[in-house]
Amino acid sequence: MINPFKPAGWFSAPHPLLRKNKEFFNSFDQNRPLTEYTFVVCDTELTGLNKKKDELISIGAVMIRDLQIDLSSMFHHFIRPQNLDATRATLVHRITPEQLENAQSAEEIMPKFVEYIHGSLLVGHYLPLDMHFLNKATKRVMGGTLSNPGVDTMRMAQGYKRVQLGHYHEHNPREISYSLDDLGVEYNLPLFKPHDALEDALQTAYLFLFFIKKFRKGGLVTLKDIFQSGRVGSLRY
Amino acid sequence: MSQNDDIHRVAPEMAIAFFREILPFNELDDDTLIDISRHCRVDFFPKGTRIFTAGETEITHLHLIQRGGVKAFIEDEHGEVTLKDFRGEGAYIGALAIIRGTPANLNIETVEDTFCFLLPSEIFTKLVEQQPSFAHYYLKSFSEKIVNTAYNELRHHKVSARSGDDLYLFSVRVGDLVKTLRKVSAKSSIQAAAATMAEYRVGSLLVHDVQDEEKIIGIITDRDLRAKVVAAGLDYNLPVEHIMTGPVQTVLSQSLCFDVLLKMMSTSIHHLAVERGGRVIGVVTSHDIMLLQGHSPYYLFKEIRGQQQISGLYVLAQKIPEVIRGLIKEGAKAGNITQMIAILNDHILERMLTLLEEELGKPPVSYCWLLMGSEGRREQTFKTDQDNAILYADPANEEEKKAAETYFKEFATRAIEHLVNCGYPLCPGEIMAINPKWCQPLSVWKGYFSRWISAPDPTELLHATIFFDFRSGFGDHLLAKRLRQHLNEQAKSQDIFLFHLARQCMSTRTPLSFFKNFIVDKDGEHKNALDIKRQGLTPYVNFARVLALSHGINETNTLARLKALHDSEFLSRELWEAANDAYELQMQQRLIHQLAQIEEGVLPDNHINPEQLSALERRMLKDAFAVIERLYSVLDKKFPVA
């Protein structure tokens, strides 16, 4: 993918928005109460799961402020992939090829997204996958990666289950499903249409709200508590 | 498309879908809904979270429950907790406090993991100011608009589009419908035939052979007279054979009405002779069969009045539900419907007892057929038990007394049997004229009431309440009037009696609210069925009875009693209106519930499953429960415990 003759930013300095983002998180205080952070819960749709070849085709995200989902600022964009032929995933995503042809390119969308998530913690269900493709895109079009710390709701689910089931019960982890849909059903959450980036982001946001407030009721009140508890989430992805 | 979905333009579909489903937001247009949705937040409260604290929490957002449920309660200074409400999905929290600009008036705590939409109070306040439906919904329980919406909803969603619109056509045989045979000789003049038709008020005559009366050779109808005689200027003195249609088309008496109607429709012949055992026993017309489907109360009414045989009333009485169904569909309200049921039942009774008197001869003394309980209050729905009695004039001597006893015993026995055949089940408590205890002269009846009133034994009183709703169903109304006068004079002065009656009324526990598919009472107890009669309607009936008796009001109908109480200023206009609406709406609910059961072929009952109630119905019922509390507090003030 990298064209040595046309360094699209590989050697140049990262985009100012990325630099600003990085500076913000360099002096990031993890000890404040949870309500003081903003979180962006996001989900991406991809052309496929091949980390090298595949690309982003859609980003959906919702903002959580004061530990409440803020329906006034949601983010939903389709992205025209570089390789439009490879849009096999459209079969799953309900995104039509026309929608992708008419969509804006990553060059236009990614700065908007970086601006949108500025100063927020990222939340996703199995976030590492989303981060890989988001960073791949920002690297290509903005010359750098995201510095936002992240929280993975799948890890939160694993942590919650451990507390819920206790250590007395030996259980086979493989028997437990951590899919977004199954967790939604298990915890009796309002359910959303799957395979749409925004709907999945909302589903993840509900799940996140569920866990974080359950944890908070259990005494974890700062972001650091959530991170340090280890069992429930992670800064690393 | 993608150009449009800018950050601030993404419409939160799920929020819009939520608002579309709940009152009163469902009345807003899409643009407003989108705008409202964009201003919302979603919050999650784990089970056991205190959301509001009464007198403390300043409410910044209207909370609308998307998933889960909460309880509302108050706590006095001694820590005594009183449950006020349970609210589930689609319900709101905090509206009243926002509108009044006060802190929360109730404690709110989640009883399940709960997700809420949070609508900023400024936006909510604006909606209340700008949308009349919002003010109505949040401020007035029984506003006209909401009541009307509730009726429409009941009508459209609960009265099913009839699947078997020809139900009777498939169950009634034509032999059951046939009219008494009227016939003339073929040589009779047209004029004589017309005179016969006029005399018997029939639209057709069978024509028999001059020699053999049993041999039917033709039929003449009103139409023949019109078309072949009057219009054609034919001589009236010609024999009818000139204009008759013959031979007559016949059907067997055991044919189903449906088949007969088919034959009529396919041949365009609307008068058919009915044959039984090779003999023509009468005529059946398309009109007779149409009446079977009779949605029209008037036709039924006419049919009842014209009935010459008691057994003929059996079929007519069975048609009452069908007439009522038509009325409900046309939008009649419970108050009118129950009156119509009472009128039709009264006419069946009147016709039956008149014919019975013809059978048994004149009674030795004048009498009055009393109706008790719901019949006495003109509040029957479908097929309520018989509750009746006979009140007769005090006999002048021993001989007359004997004669009266013998006569009314026989009279009652036959009447009750006929009523059973009409589909009015026997009263399990044997409060029927057939019971010698309830077939007595005026002096004995006066004695009964005096005893109930002066020495009220609570248990006995419980069983006697339905007697206090008596009215005259047939006969000498003056007797009933004199008994009522006696009762009123006695009741007004007996505080103990009224006190017991009032306390008995208040002992019926009212439900609090609906939660999910349960009905919840004050102790938080859940039940999965609402007994709309016992929990919903009876408290109103009891309330109206106590106050009517204590103020000497003669009415027995609950709505009429409530109105009379208001007219004589014993009940505030506001409370009267609320009680009237709440009572009538519940009656409607009950009628429709029972109608649906009848149509399903199930015995009608009073148990309503909350699962089948819409949000609006739940809301209306809940408000109706709240009115009961207010009525009780009126009683509590008037009849305080020492």
What does this structure look like?
The complex is a heterodimer of chains A (237) and B (642). By secondary structure, chain A is α/β, with parallel strands linked by helices. Chain A has one domain (33-228): Nucleotidyltransferase, domain 5 (2-Layer Sandwich), CATH 3.30.420. In chain A, 40% of the residues lie in helices and 17% in strands. Chain A has nine helices and six strands. Chain A has helices at 16-26, 90-93, 97-101, 106-116, 127-142, 153-165, 180-186, 197-217, 223-228, and strands spanning 38-46, 56-65, 68-80, 104-105, 121-124, 150-152. Chain A has a six-stranded mixed sheet with strand order 4-3-2-1-5-6. In chain A, strand 2 and strand 3 form a beta hairpin. In chain A, helix 4 packs across helix 5, helix 6 packs parallel to helix 8 (197-217) and helix 7 crosses helix 8. The longest helix of chain A is centred in the last third of the chain and has 21 residues, at 197-217. The radius of gyration of chain A is 18 Å and the shape is globular. Chain B is of the alpha+beta class. Among the domains of chain B are: 11-139, Sandwich (Jelly Rolls); 172-292, CBS-domain; 309-449, Beta Polymerase, domain 2 (2-Layer Sandwich). Helix content of chain B is 48%, strand content 16%. Chain B contains 24 helices and 23 strands. Chain B has a four-stranded antiparallel sheet. In chain B, strand 16, helix 16 (398-421) and strand 17 (439-441) form a beta-alpha-beta unit.
